[in-house]
Each structure stands twice: as structure tokens, then as C-alpha cells.
Amino acid sequence: MVSRVVFGRGSFNQLSDILSPKRLNVKAPFIYLVDDVFKGNAWLTSRISLAYADQVIFISADEEPKTSQVDQLVEQIILSHKDRPSGIIGIGGGTILDLAKAVAIMLTNPGESKDYQGWDLVKTPAIYHVGVPTISGTGAEVSRTTVLTGPEKKLGINSDYTPFDQVILDPELTKDVPKDQWFFTGMDCYIHCVESLKGTYLNAFSQSYGEKAYDLCKEIFIDGDGSKEELQDKLMMASWHGGMSIAYSQVGAAHAMSYGLGYLLGTKHGIGNCIVFDHLEEFYPEGVALFKEMKEKHNIEIPQGICSQLSDDEFDIMIDVALGLEPLWENAIGKNWKKTITREKLKALYQKM
Ligand code: NAD
Ligand code: ZN
């Protein structure tokens, strides 16, 4: 679990106080990986105080993190500094938070990041890393994984060393998120809750967090219960609780199929989940009905026909990725999932999207 967390509007101002005791020496910099949407945004960047060899690296979130990108960043950091960094600080959405976690791990572990995609393959603790989410929903700020696209698979580095050492939850940082993106990333949280609560892996730990996050999502996306600021606060906590819920269970059918879209077409996680979830009423009847209500209420158009031009080989690639995520199907359907989740079944579903 994340060992330290602060919450509150304006809590981002505490960043330098939080970091200063963690500086190892003047040659060991803090490296800030910041979403490039904040480039030139003095409101945010003026609060990052740099000393000695500290460095800000702006990173585009247009594409989701790749193992090659992680390896390249690690090399760049090693080559441009005399000492190993004192810490890595990720400021952005799931894309940047996952990059920060992966870079922190790969600065202390040999080889390439693709070698660590899987469960508990990391042997050496990562360097100190801090997460500052600027959009809410993925739960990447709290989770034990960093999802990376590698040469062979889209799979997380799941390990005890992956979670952040410190998280700063400042809902004010989410104030300028565009509406569609707010919905898509918010729905990632909602879908985490449905998949966790309706999954066969459910247990009291996951249920307690999942129910809270589910209720918060209803307050936010159905009732609109609160001021703009209150809704930002609630979504940040829903994301946290949704992430905690899947930490001790699993995601399900929507994530498995969305990973297929992401791998083949580069469809981003939030929107990909929405494209898939829209067609999963047979697995999650109530969850999908409520999702459709949320979509209507906020006038969100989900892209249609993204699979209409695909070849049989391309369908096969997506189906291979989706079927490879066995724990997700086992959670969604149960131990005998292979009886019903056939290649034909998945192809028919993808053809609707
Ligand atoms: P994202 O990080 O890709 O950001 C989406 C868009 O919002 C980007 O264009 C970004 O620049 C913009 N943005 C972010 N903050 C903003 C702000 N405050 N103001 C204006 N624009 C802002 O999106 P995401 O949905 O947060 O993350 C998706 C990624 O998270 C995927 O790579 C996915 O695999 C990963 N993920 C990880 C976990 C995990 O547990 N590690 C869980 C779910 C998803
Ligand atoms: Zn997700």
C-alpha cells in the first residue's frame, strides 16, 4: 500500500516540504515527470521548486506508457546526473503516474522493463517515488501495478515495490480537465467498481472499498450531488477507493477486452473501457444500464465502428490479448470461464464496437 498520503485542496503546496528531508545529497536530484499539458502553466509549475540538479521532464500523455519509453527515460536520467536520483515525482494522469512508478523501479533493477511485466518479478526496492494525480479515475495513484505496453504484451509490473511512497491528493489540480476526458477517466473508476463487486474474487476488503467508490460515482455522475469543487473532491476519493477495491480482487471482462483494443489500435484506457462496457450488458446488466444513464445525462458520444474495418488477423490479435488475461476472466465468470468465453464469442462482441 501507499505508505503516506496527504489530501486537500492546495495540498500540492506542501510538495517541497515533503521532499526536502528525502534529498540524499546535492548530486542526487529530484526528477519531476510532468504531463506536458502543464507546460507553460505557471499556476502549477511555479510550485515545483528546483534545487541543485533537480530536473523537470515534460511528457506527452497522447500515448500510453511503453516499456521502451521507460527504458529510454531511465537511460536519459542515468546519463545526465552524477548520482542516482533522490526521488521521482510523477504529476499527471494514469499515463504519467505509471511512467513514474516504472522509472523508479528500473533505476534500481537491472535489465529492461519488459522483463518485469508480470507478478512479483521485481527484486530490489525502487527509489523513493511520489505520485500527484491531476485527473481522477484510474486508481493508478494507489495501485500496486504500472501498466505498460511492451513488445509482446500489455501487462503491468505488479509488485510490492510499485506503489508510491507518498501521494499528494489535491483535487484542485483536476479543475481544467476537459469534460469528455473527465467522463472517460471517471468511468474507469466506475467500471473498476462494477467489475470488482460483480466478480467471483470479491471479498470483504474489496467490497468495502468498492461499494464506497460505487456510491460516490452515483453521487457524481447521476445525482450531481454537490458543488463543482465537492464533486472534484469526491471523484478523487472514488478513484482511490476504486483502486483499493481492485487491489485485493481483479478487474473483469471490460478491462480484458479493452486491453485488446489498446494493444492493436492504441485506444486509450478510459475511452476503450467505455467502448467495450457499452456492449457488456450480458455480463453486467445493472452496471451497464447505469452507465448508459450516465452517458446520456452528460451527453457523451462513445466512438462507434472502430472495429468495422479490421481483418480476421487483427481480430485474432485482439482476441489473443484479451484471452491471455486469464485472472480477469476467472474473476468475471468463474473457474469454468473457458466454456463460455470462446474466440467466436469475443469476435462477435468486438464486431459490435
Ligand atoms: P491520461 O493520463 O492519459 O490523461 C488523459 C488526458 O488528460 C491527457 O491528454 C492529459 O494530458 C490530460 N490531463 C491530465 N490531467 C489534466 C488536467 N489537470 N487538466 C487538463 N488535462 C489533463 O489518462 P488517465 O485516464 O488518467 O490514464 C490512463 C492510463 O492509466 C493508461 O495508460 C492506463 O493503462 C493507466 N491505468 C493504470 C492503472 C494502474 O493501476 N496503474 C489503472 C488504470 C489505468
Ligand atoms: Zn482501469
UniProtKB/TrEMBL annotation:
Gene3D superfamilies: 3.40.50.1970, Dehydroquinate synthase-like - alpha domain (1.20.1090.10)
InterPro entries: ADH_Fe/GldA (IPR001670), ADH_Fe_C (IPR056798), Alcohol_dehydrogenase_Fe (IPR039697)
Coiled coil: none
Pfam families associated with the record: ADH_Fe_C, Fe-ADH
Single Gene Ontology MF annotation: metal ion binding
CDD domains reported for this sequence: Fe-ADH_KdnB-like
Keyword Oxidoreductase: yes
Domain annotation Fe-containing alcohol dehydrogenase-like C-terminal: ranges: 185-286
Domain Alcohol dehydrogenase iron-type/glycerol dehydrogenase GldA, first and last residues per copy: 4-171
Organism domain of life: Bacteria
Keywords: Oxidoreductase
The protein's name in its UniProt record: Iron-containing alcohol dehydrogenase
The organism of origin for this protein: Gelidibacter maritimus
